[in-house]
C-alpha cells in the first residue's frame, strides 16, 4: 500500500499554497518584490549625467494636494522633479514604497528637488490611510486632468524625472530600489548641473 502523506506530497502542497497566496495577495507579492530589490534586482534608471540632456521638454502637469492646493510642474523650473505614479492596490508600487520614502527623507529639505507621488486612483482617503498605516511621510498628489500618453501608458508604477531645464531626464516603468547608491549619485548629478 502506497503512503498518501509523504515529504514530497507535503512540500508540493506547501509550494502550491504559497504560489496561490502570492498570486492573489498584493501584500505577499510586494514582500517578494522587496526581497528581490534588496538582492539587487529592479535597479532604477541611471544615466550618465555628463551626457547632453534629452531635447524633449516635459509637458506641464497640474497636481492637487489633499488640502486642495494646486501646483504646476512648469512653475518649478530650476528644480529636479521626481514624479512617481502609483496605486495602493499595486504590488510593485507597494514594494518600492519603502525606498521612495527613504529617498524622500534624504531630499525633502533640499530646495533644488521636488519629490511627488501621484495616486492614480485619485482617492486621497485611501492613499493617505495607506501611507499613514505604513508610516511613510511621502507627500501625495492627484492629477488635475489627464497625463499625456508619452509620459504614462497606464503601467504603474511609473517614474518620471524632470531635470532643472524642464526636460525629461529619465522615465521608468516598474518597481525600482531608489535607495541604490548609483541612483543617489545620478540624482545628485542632476541637482548639481
TrEMBL record:
PROSITE patterns assigned to the protein according to its UniProt record, in alphabetical order: THIOREDOXIN_2 (PS51352)
Domain Thioredoxin: 52-192
Name of a matching Pfam family: Redoxin
Residue stretches in coiled coil: none
Superkingdom field: Bacteria
Gene3D superfamilies according to UniProt: Glutaredoxin
Identification of the protein by name: TlpA family protein disulfide reductase
Amino acid at each position: 500500500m502506497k503512503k498518501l502523506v509523504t515529504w514530497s506530497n507535503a512540500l508540493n502542497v506547501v509550494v502550491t499554497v504559497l504560489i496561490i497566496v502570492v498570486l492573489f495577495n498584493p501584500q505577499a507579492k510586494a514582500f517578494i518584490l522587496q526581497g528581490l530589490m534588496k538582492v539587487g534586482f529592479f535597479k532604477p534608471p541611471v544615466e550618465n549625467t555628463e551626457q547632453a540632456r534629452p531635447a524633449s521638454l516635459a509637458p506641464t502637469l497640474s497636481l492637487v494636494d489633499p488640502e486642495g492646493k494646486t501646483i504646476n510642474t512648469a512653475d518649478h523650473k530650476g528644480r529636479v522633479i521626481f514624479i512617481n505614479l502609483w496605486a495602493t492596490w499595486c504590488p510593485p508600487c507597494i514594494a518600492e514604497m519603502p525606498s521612495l520614502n527613504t529617498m524622500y527623507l534624504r531630499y525633502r529639505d533640499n530646495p533644488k528637488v521636488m519629490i511627488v507621488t501621484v495616486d492614480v486612483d485619485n482617492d486621497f482617503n485611501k492613499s493617505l490611510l495607506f501611507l499613514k498605516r505604513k508610516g511613510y511621510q511621502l507627500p501625495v498628489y492627484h492629477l488635475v486632468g489627464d497625463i499625456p500618453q508619452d509620459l504614462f501608458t497606464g503601467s504603474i508604477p511609473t517614474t518620471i524625472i524632470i531635470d532643472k531645464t524642464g526636460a525629461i531626464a529619465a522615465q521608468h516603468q516598474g518597481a525600482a530600489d531608489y535607495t541604490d547608491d548609483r541612483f543617489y549619485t545620478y540624482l545628485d548629478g542632476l541637482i548639481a548641473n
